[in-house]
Amino acid sequence: MLKRGHSVGFLGYREHHGGGAEALRLAGPDNKTKQYDGGVLRKRTQVEADVLAREKAAQELADALPKESSTIPTINLFLPEALKDAVFVGHLVTDLDSVGGAIGAAALYNGKAALASEINSETAFALDEWGVDKPPTIEEVLKENPDAKICLVDHQQTSQMNPAINPDNVVGVIDHHALQSKTIVTDRPIYIDIRPWGSMSTIISHTFLTHQKRPSVGVAGMLLCAILSDTLNLQGPTTTEWDR
């Protein structure tokens, strides 16, 4: 036990800072106690006993680790296989971030963009400006392929989801909004990418950059317009440094 006026350093922790197993090696005479500098004894805890019992196995594991950093394998950045060939669709009363993000995600994950509802004039202007075709409606896509995999973009509430979408076919969500009432519930794990940024299209743009993929001029232009729209030209209260 710690005596009045003594610090943790008095017990020997300061001298034995190499790890738990090294400190536990300060065995008392009966090997069931722990003796600190100054002769202070205390009974070993069960955790300490378990650590010592596994010390040999831990040392074998440490010895097997690569000694040179050049031998450490390179791990590829994660791109969810579930989103490959998926249909990316935004929310009802769709806006530029919802459409631009769906177009960007479709290009990034080799999928297809779709509209949840008719586009507004701002989105129509951006599509025309960058020479990008207007995506088909989700109803048209599902008519051709009723069992298509769906990734929701720019929303995750069922109240904002097009009623033609079967929740059982949702394989992912990419969004930047808070989780509130009526958030989608699934029977199996799905891909989730929700970040507290000013625009869903920022998430897609960031993923393009981190994976060193170059979007086409049209896709990049749509993502840019979507970010500027949702962040009010980077002046809105939800704007982050990631958006800039």
Topology:
Blueprint: H1 20-24, E1 33-35, E2 41-43, H2 46-53, H3 55-64, E3 87-89, H4 96-108, E4 112-114, H5 121-129, H6 138-144, E5 150-153, E6 170-175, E7 191-194, H7 200-210, H8 217-230
Parallel strand pairs: 3-4, 3-5, 5-6, 6-7
Antiparallel strand pairs: 1-2
Helix pairs in contact: 4-7, 4-8, 7-8
Description:
- The chain is an alpha/beta fold.
- Helix content is 32%, strand content 11%.
- The protein is built from eight helices and seven strands, in the order αββααβαβααβββαα.
- It has helices spanning 20-24, 46-53, 55-64, 96-108, 121-129, 138-144, 200-210, 217-230, and strands spanning 33-35, 41-43, 87-89, 112-114, 150-153, 170-175, 191-194.
- The protein has a five-stranded parallel beta sheet with strand order 4-3-5-6-7, covered by helices on one side. Strands 1-2 form a two-stranded antiparallel sheet.
- A hairpin with a 5-residue loop joins strand 1 (33-35) and strand 2.
- Helix 4 (96-108) runs antiparallel to helix 8 (217-230) and helix 7 (200-210) packs across helix 8 (217-230).
- The longest helix has 14 residues, at 217-230.
- The two termini are 55 Å apart.
- The model is unreliable at 1-19 (pLDDT under 50).
Offer a few descriptive terms:
7 strands; 11% strand; elongated; single chain; alpha/beta; 5-stranded parallel β-sheet; 244 residues; 8 helices
